[in-house]
Task: inverse folding
């Protein structure tokens, strides 16, 4: 299958099928060596529970790598195997997991985006290969890379591309996209660029229900145009005018947001349009599509089921800049003591743990966090977290109560 999608490749970069059976067999073996977990497999086989030495761990039924993440990693590894004599670059992080991104860097794939970039797009040559991460990339960035004649390996998640299709249609129809997401997140930046369509489309990004209500009040009764633009500085399209561009609106979303919140955004915006225009006239002025990632929803549903079981604490594992993982931590902390950790090294002792505070947006230290046995702890992980990191956290939890990995596997 072609690796580049969308605009046809230039004459300097003919399409190359890197997913041959031989390449993918080698890739699968390499990826399994890096990310497989014997402990996680054993827990799954035991119905999601592992108990030893007075400690029980309950693993959510859905956790860790989703199909889109697996595909992105496989394609990056495949690109390295196929283009052995060419320089490989990536547009930022392939996914939001620091350990996985370190593995990608170890393959010799250099970064073009962000504070840790190794080069810039302007330094590329036609002989170079550029990997688009699972989040996608902004339209203008890809246009520049294509013009340079680079080979593109596109790993963009299919769910993300479904959102792009909707917002491009909005732009063609003169409908402004109200995007529920994080304005500076890579996926939302890419979606926003697609919402411009041919350059005439418009969008505004709302983070939460408070910002949604602000937009809804403006939809119904207008307001201070300057104050609106200031509140959404950096979160709206160039030339956006709330007095002109909120007549017809469509709700879209970053695929990793909380489904319930996105549905509420949709409901409130729809009601505001109907309140303004009336039921009959308002209906054509509002549209929405369900574009929450299925894997994101599965992990949220699985955690909701897990939290119904009596437990003393919850460990959420993943990168701190992972949106879907952050939402899992948000769900947990409303029910039981929840610790969002990047890896097992954050569990320094039975008394001290470093974990991410999603409200302060920083890693903090908590003491006296681990109850004595008998202990029942829940574990889940975001869609960008590999099984080997999940294993390390689970093993560390048992170690802190005197149970070694060998005992876990011997049981």
Result:
């Amino acid at each position: 299958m072609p690796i580049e999608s969308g605009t046809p490749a230039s004459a300097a970069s003919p399409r190359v099928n890197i997913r041959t059976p031989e390449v993918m067999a080698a890739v699968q073996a390499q990826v399994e060596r890096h990310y497989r977990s014997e402990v996680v497999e054993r827990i799954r086989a035991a119905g999601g529970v592992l108990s030893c030495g007075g400690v029980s761990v309950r693993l959510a039924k859905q956790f860790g790598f989703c199909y889109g993440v697996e595909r992105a990693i496989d394609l990056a590894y495949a690109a390295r195997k196929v283009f052995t004599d060419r320089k490989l670059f990536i547009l930022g992080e392939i996914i939001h997991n620091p350990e996985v991104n370190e593995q990608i860097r170890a393959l010799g794939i250099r970064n073009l985006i962000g504070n840790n970039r190794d080069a810039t797009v302007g330094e590329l040559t036609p002989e170079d290969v550029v990997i688009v991460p699972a989040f996608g990339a902004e339209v203008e960035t890809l246009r520049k890379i294509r013009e340079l004649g680079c080979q593109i390996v596109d790993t963009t998640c299919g769910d993300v591309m479904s959102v792009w299709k909707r917002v491009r249609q909005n732009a063609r129809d003169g409908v402004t996209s109200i995007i529920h997401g994080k304005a500076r997140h890579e996926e939302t930046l890419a979606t926003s660029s697609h919402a411009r369509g041919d350059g005439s489309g418009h969008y505004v990004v709302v983070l939460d229900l408070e910002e949604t209500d602000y937009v809804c009040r403006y939809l119904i009764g207008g307001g201070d145009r300057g104050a609106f633009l200031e509140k959404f500085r950096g979160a709206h399209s160039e030339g956006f005018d709330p007095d002109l561009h909120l007549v017809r609106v469509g709700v879209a979303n970053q695929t990793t947001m909380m489904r319930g919140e996105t549905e509420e955004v949709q409901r409130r915006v729809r009601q505001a349009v109907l309140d303004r225009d009336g039921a009959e006239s308002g209906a054509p002025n509002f549209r929405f599509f369900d574009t929450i990632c299925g894997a994101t929803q599965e992990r949220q549903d699985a955690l909701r089921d897990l939290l119904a079981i009596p437990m003393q604490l919850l460990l959420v594992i993943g990168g701190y800049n992972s949106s879907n993982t952050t939402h899992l931590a948000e769900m947990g902390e409303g029910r039981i003591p929840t610790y969002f950790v990047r890896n097992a090294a954050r569990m320094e002792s039975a008394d001290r743990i470093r974990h991410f505070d999603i409200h302060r947006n920083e890693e903090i230290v908590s003491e006296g966090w681990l109850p004595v046995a008998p202990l029942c702890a829940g574990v889940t992980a975001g869609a960008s977290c590999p099984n080997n990191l999940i294993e390390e956290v689970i093993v560390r939890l048992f170690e802190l109560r005197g149970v070694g990995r060998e005992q876990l596997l011997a049981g």
